[in-house]
Write a structure and sequence with these properties.
The complex is a heterodimer of chains A (77) and B (589). Chain A is mainly alpha-helical and 77 residues long. Chain A has one domain: ACP-like (Non-ribosomal Peptide Synthetase Peptidyl Carrier Protein, Chain A). Helix content of chain A is 61%, strand content 0%. Chain A contains 4 helices and no strands. Chain A has helices at 2-16, 37-51, 57-62, 66-76. Chain B is globular. Chain B is built from 22 helices and 17 strands. Chain B has helices at residues 9-25, 44-56, 71-77, 79-84, 108-132, 161-178, 187-194, 196-199, 203-208, 217-231, 252-255, 267-284, 297-304, 326-336, 351-360, 371-380, 391-410, 416-422, 437-446, 459-467, 516-530, 552-556, and strands at residues 31-39, 59-65, 88-92, 137-140, 182-185, 238-241, 288-294, 318-322, 344-347, 425-430, 471-480, 483-496, 499-507, 535-540, 559-563, 569-574, 585-587. Classes of the chains: A mainly alpha (77), B alpha/beta (589). The A-B interface holds A 11, 14-17, 37-38, 41-42, 44-46, 48-50, 56-57, 60-61 and B 10, 13-18, 21, 44-45, 48, 203, 206-208, 210, 214-215.
């Protein structure tokens, strides 16, 4: 799980172009200033590429925070 | 900075913000253009990636995006769009925007009517945009549906969606064929090439209203950017080709001409033949082919004369076969052709050679990994994207070759003037005419070096200049005993009372040092005086590329009036009692 978070962190920093970002399981869009709907799509795509997974539509719509995202990734790996 | 081409889609998507930052850091002057994106689906992510690929190619866009799926309303009535005054309009529609498909109960006549109404929905919009705005329009065609109710029959039955989309596309192409300044962005081919299943993944439509899968947007934006780049004169001009294991299999110096693989007998030879055929076809489009090979020239020529090969020594504008570093040979090639190194694509199977050339010169050198992928690698690079095609393109290789012959002759004369006289040059210098407007526009968008203001014109803008009486326009064609160079120089001056502001002065570098610029000046002065002008006012705006004409007006005898801290200079010349300057070219006779 730790490894997943560290890789997620890298993706977040790249997508938002901000090296000060550190995510944890409770991080949501409210915590990151640039996390709007457009960047959200880029983020999902970048996470999918990073972990070589594809989220289903249900998963994408249901994710409430970074913790849930990490859970889904952990199940797939 | 990642590669411009080939690129890694995932990397570019993820890193787009920092890539943009890096690109803008170079401080280079880019062509600024206003681009309106009219979308039938979400366009934000598309604009972002398009911006990256345009910045990479020296173009800096500012965007207008219509509200979600408001493309048609915006095109027909949008006042904000009209106030934006776009230089380009891109209409991002897809088969998701087809309002109605045939159903099985329809008779053939009903399907025809439906097709007509669907097609006219688009043509009415294009007509309106052409009338109101008049800038180039880039329109997606339709990708194929991702499911087929009738299975294989869907393509041949008039009720099939595949059939219907195919017919709509045909209507789009007919419009493109009969209207200039209208360009198809072929997403039908692109989606097929990348795989329709990936492209049309409905998740991206249902979740975000994207008409294509988000991971493929970089591919989409790259493909689209090539049309812009081509229209703005950013195409490459030369393919500089290695020989051994690039144009044939094996090493001609070791294996002898009879030992190299080219020709129909063996699979390897066939593949090299196909590559040579591809290059020959490029040459017919006006791409210059040159050789850049570490070989004795004699062996190189022997290889190119292989009876089963397709390319012959005469297909190459020049041949550099020697043992000098390739970067030096490429630099020399650029110099001899009067082109910038960045207009050369270096094609070599050896990664080390590619790295050295890329490291020393601003050349593209795509990875030629294995002969079976050579054509695809070059083709997908879009280096020579064709948007407007002029007669001169067909003859370009020939013209550059004649130049090489002239250069040879030059050394035989003691005096340069004597050499110029020996060329028996004849020029025709006159106002524009409808028949040469396309070539003139093309020149204004291609010329970088001998270009005082680097002002770019779209076809529509050029037409306005052509129709207005506020301008004095000249285009010059130069012919000599070696052949016709075609239209090589363009001057546009805007009348301002008794002064003429020279907004554009350019010349093709293939006629440098022939005194053509003097002949142009003579005619300009004569024409201007005839229209009551007393003063010619010249402007020079420096770019990274036009240093060679920094002092052109000074050399003509203009007085420098001012210079700002960016190096922009203003010049004036009183033409009363003008004395002709050209001595070596016979003009309009």
């Amino acid at each position: 799980m730790e490894e997943i978070y560290s890789r997620l962190n890298g993706v977040f920093r790249d997508v938002f172009d901000d090296d000060s970002i550190t995510v944890n399981e409770s991080t949501t869009a409210n915590d990151i200033e640039d996390w709007d709907s457009l960047n959200h799509i880029t983020l999902i795509d970048a996470v999918e590429s990073e972990f070589k997974v594809r989220f289903t539509m249900g998963e994408v719509s249901g994710m409430k925070n970074v913790g849930e995202m990490a859970q889904i990734i952990a199940q797939r790996m | 900075m990642p590669n411009f081409y080939p690129f890694d889609c995932a990397y570019i998507t993820k890193k787009q913000k920092s890539i943009k930052r890096e690109l803008l850091k170079d401080g280079a002057k880019r062509i600024e253009k206003k681009v309106a994106i009219l979308g039938g689906s979400t366009t934000n992510g598309i604009a972002d990636l398009l911006e990256l690929f345009l910045l990479w190619q020296g173009i800096r866009p500012t965007f207008y995006q219509s509200e979600y799926n408001q493309y048609w309303q915006d095109a027909m009535f949008g006042s904000e769009l009209r106030e934006f005054k776009p230089d380009f309009i891109f209409i991002h529609t897809s088969n998701r925007n087809i309002a109605q498909y045939p159903d099985m109960s329809m008779k053939s006549g009903d399907v025809d009517l439906l097709l007509k109404s669907q097609t006219e929905y688009f043509t009415a919009m294009w007509d309106k945009l052409r009338e109101d705005i008049g800038c180039p329009i880039i329109q997606n065609n339709m990708e194929m549906p991702y499911w087929r109710l009738l299975g294989n029959k869907d393509c041949a039955d008039i009720h099939g969606r595949v059939s219907f989309v195919t017919r709509i596309n045909q209507g789009f192409y007919e419009y493109a064929q009969s209207h200039d300044n209208f360009f198809i962005h072929d997403i039908n081919y692109l989606s097929a090439s990348l795989g329709l299943e990936r492209w049309a993944n409905p998740l991206y439509w249902n979740m975000y209203k994207y008409a294509l899968a988000v991971p493929l947007i970089p591919e989409f934006a790259f493909s689209l950017s090539k049309i812009f780049a081509s229209l703005l004169g950013r195409n490459k001009k030369v393919l500089a080709l290695d020989l051994d294991n690039t144009l044939w299999g094996g090493v001609v110096g070791d294996d002898g001409a009879e030992g190299i693989a080219v020709g129909q007998e063996v699979p390897m030879g066939q593949a090299y033949c196909e590559f040579q055929e591809y290059l020959k076809a490029q040459k017919q489009l006006g791409v210059l082919l040159t050789v850049c090979s570490k070989n004795d020239e004699e062996n190189a020529i022997a290889g190119l004369n292989h009876p089963d090969g397709v390319l012959r020594p005469r297909d190459f504008t020049l041949i550099k076969a020697n043992w000098e570093p390739k970067s030096l040979n490429i630099e020399q090639t650029a110099k001899e052709l009067n082109l910038l190194p960045e207009s050369i694509v270096f094609v070599d199977d050896n990664p080390a050679e590619r790295e050295i050339v890329k490291g020393t010169l601003p050349c593209e050198a795509p990875p030629m990994e294995s002969i079976e992928s050579y054509i695809q690698t070059l083709d997908k690079g879009g280096y020579f994207e064709v948007t407007n095609f002029s007669e001169d393109d067909l003859k370009r290789g020939e013209m550059y070759k004649q130049n090489a012959e002239r250069a040879k002759m030059q050394s035989a004369f003691a005096d340069y003037g004597e050499y110029l006289d020996s060329l028996e040059m004849k020029a025709e210098i006159a106002d524009f005419s409808p028949i040469n407007l396309a070539r003139i526009t093309q020149l204004t968008n291609k010329s970088n070096q001998f270009n005082l203001t680097t002002k770019r014109f779209t076809s529509a803008e050029m037409e306005q200049v052509y129709e207005s009486s506020d301008y004095i326009r000249l285009c010059g064609r130069l012919e000599d005993k070696f052949g016709d160079n075609g239209i090589v120089s363009v001057v546009i001056g805007k009348k301002d009372g008794a002064a003429l502001d020279i907004e554009l002065w350019l010349m093709s570098c293939r006629v440098l040092k022939r005194d053509m610029e003097l002949a142009m000046l003579d005619t300009l002065a004569e024409e201007a005086a005839g229209q009551g002008i007393e003063v010619l006012r010249g402007h020079y705006y420096p770019t990274a590329k036009n240093n060679m004409v920094k002092n052109l007006y000074g050399d003509f005898g203009f007085d420098k009036i001012s210079e700002d801290n960016e190096g922009n200079t203003l010049w004036e010349y009183n033409i009363r009692g003008y004395q002709k300057k050209n001595r070596h070219i016979k003009v309009n006779g």
